[in-house]
Amino acid sequence: MLSKRIIPCLDVKDGRTVKGVNFVDLRDAGDPVELAAQYAQQGADELVFLDITATHERRKTMIEMVKSVARQLNIPFTIGGGITEIADAEALLNAGADKISINSAAVRNPKLIEELAKAFGVQFVVVAVDTKHVDGKNWVHLNGGRLMTELQTETWIKQAEQLGAGEILLTSMDHDGTKAGFDCNLLKKVNESINIPIIASGGAGSMAHFTEVFQKTNVDAALAASVFHYGEILIPDLKQELSRHQIPVRI
């Protein structure tokens, strides 16, 4: 059985790691390169960096950060934010990123998923989906959660898989930053409907929440930010706890 992955997420704004609640009220959480090195030492399986206010003007800053991170790390890391064409992804991969994550750009131009998968391989392409429950259904949101689309979450994820996504990073905006637990109902439903790995995101507040999401949904990975950034959960402790519950992890 494949080991379940624990993935710290670093939301980066102006070169600093930040964290909010329900995608707003951001506060500083430290230097991303230093945090990345700490997580690698603690035993994180992968890292995700999201440039949450990415624009082309700041792409050069991001590339320098990627190079710095790559020098520090011996684990895979994914970069997302502001990738709208092959050249953006190529620059980040050349700088040392292992995978790229696309979100809004993929919804606006679904062919981008196909193009990236053909250019770099399916395993390099993570499609991030920010979802919110509105009027009894789950809807895809763009622009850091600020813009609701007419796409239903489950439909879009299936389409992304067909186009060549190698992995889905599914963030529940309703749960994000609340520390009340992952959206297990949605994650289970989506995981049973597709054949590519899912990274669960949004809501981690305790070690029990990680145990619950793996036991109830069988997702491949669980991602969190603030509980790791502020030292509320240490990755070695979390992995020992998961192991006690017979959840396979790399220790």
In short:
With 251 residues, the protein is of the alpha/beta class. Helices cover 37% and strands 28% of the residues. The model has no long low-confidence stretch (mean pLDDT 91).
What does this molecule look like?
Keywords: Amino-acid biosynthesis, Cytoplasm, Histidine biosynthesis, Lyase. InterPro entries: Aldolase_TIM (IPR013785), His_biosynth (IPR006062), HisF (IPR004651), IGPS_HisA/HisF (IPR050064), RibuloseP-bd_barrel (IPR011060). Helix content is 37%, strand content 28%. The protein starts with a strand and ends in a 7-residue tail after the last helix. It has helices at residues 32-42, 59-72, 86-95, 104-108, 111-120, 153-163, 184-191, 207-217, 226-229, 235-244, and strands spanning 5-13, 16-21, 24-30, 47-51, 77-80, 99-102, 125-134, 137-142, 147-152, 167-172, 198-201, 221-224. The mean pLDDT is 91. It has 251 residues and is of the alpha/beta class. An 8-stranded parallel beta barrel has the order 1-4-5-6-7-10-11-12, surrounded by 6 helices. The protein has a single domain (5-244), classed as TIM Barrel (Alpha-Beta Barrel), CATH 3.20.20.
